Amino acid sequence: AIYMRKDGKPVCYVGNYLYNNCIDEKLLQKALKGVLTSMLYDNLARGSFKWYYLGIDTPHIVFNYLDYILWWEDLQNDGKKYSDFKFEFRNSVEHWYPQHPYDLQQWNKGDRFGNLCLVPRHINSRFSNMDPAKKKSTYEKSIDKGSLKLRLMWDETSDDYNDWKENLCEEYEKKMLGKLRENVNLYVRWWGLFCL
């Protein structure tokens, strides 16, 4: 995957360098996780989690890193739940509960991290302005191949679209933000030890 630094330069060369020059596989895993977490940390204004209402301006590294966390947690168990997951280029931020729903009431809290995920642009076009329950029933195959955050949103969605905006989105968001916070805090502690 290619991620951009704030100055617009790609940082994929760091991962390639580590992969090509690191002999110890465990050290390689720690180093790559450190690079990703450092990028996440930098994108979150040095640990400030006030970004989660940025809507489509949420840095894509946040979504990608959350997928990495979810994938890694599954791998530490039995690795079966997400064995078909692939890290792919997803370039469009999707609102699970739409910004401009067809026949539904507008939701003024929909531009929040819990309601957003990364999808390929063509999937975003297909989802259009459908409510979460319709997306779930109509595009199951696309969701099954999507990001892990999208898959979990699908799992959390009930047949009543109001459940998502009234309860489920906020509960889901708290869980996902907790995972990000925990990993950033682990990185800060790990990096401090590494630099001693």
| Strand residue content | under 5%
Considering DSSP H and I runs of 4 or more, what fraction of the residues is helical? 55-70%
First-to-last CA distance: 30 Å
Q: Which ranges are low-confidence, i.e. pLDDT below 50, for 5 or more consecutive residues?
A: 1-15, 190-196
**What's the oligomerization state?**
single chain
Largest sheet: 2 strands, antiparallel
The H-and-E topology, N to C, reads as: HHHEEHHHHH
Biggest sheet strand order reads: 1-2
Class derived from helix and strand content: mainly alpha
Shape: globular
* Total helical elements: 8
If you had to describe this structure to a student in words, what would you say it looks like?
With 196 residues, this protein is mostly helical. It has 8 helices and 2 strands; from the N terminus they run αααββααααα. The protein has helices at residues 12-21, 25-43, 60-77, 121-127, 132-138, 140-144, 148-156, 161-194, and strands spanning 92-95, 116-119. It has a two-stranded antiparallel sheet with strand order 1-2. The radius of gyration is 18 Å and the shape is globular. It starts with 11 loop residues before the first helix and ends with a helix.
